Amino acid sequence: MPTPSSTAPWRRALAATGFLLGAAACDAPTESTSLEVTLSANPDPAQPAASTGVTYKVEGQDDDPDEIRTYPWKTSFVVNIQETGGLAVDITAVTLKVQQASGGIVIAPSGGEVEYFRFNSSASGNRVAANGSASVGFEVWYDLPNKGREALVTVTLGFQDDDDRSYSDVIAVKIAP
What pTM does this model have? Predict the structure, then answer.
């Protein structure tokens, strides 16, 4: 059985190796592991306009037939993406949600009512260079249960860096009354 004095050199060697590895890691270059982007909308707030020609279907209940309705409102805006952390990323996903609002405050529909919307988007590209920028334009058609035109649009953007790490960021865009 080893004596305490015979294991001491082994422990000292292990401790020295751990210290050297730790010290070497401190000299390694560091990379950003968090997304640093600034999202802005233009215009902000977005302006509603009367819509024509774009429709949606409301499923009928039981024996009631389906209804085809025209979206009463349309708006357009651009989300600008500015990367500020030195980390190039790909834009991998875009989602959008429209909610009725007052003064930028979401007003949840009551009684099972639903907000109807659809959107088209067009991007300047799917790559945001380190310290670079990109933009995604949106056309949004919507119909709100309160029959108003004021809404809050929430845009969520998904990103992925070159090391396959995923990130997301959100911007809320007001649609003026």
Answer: 0.78
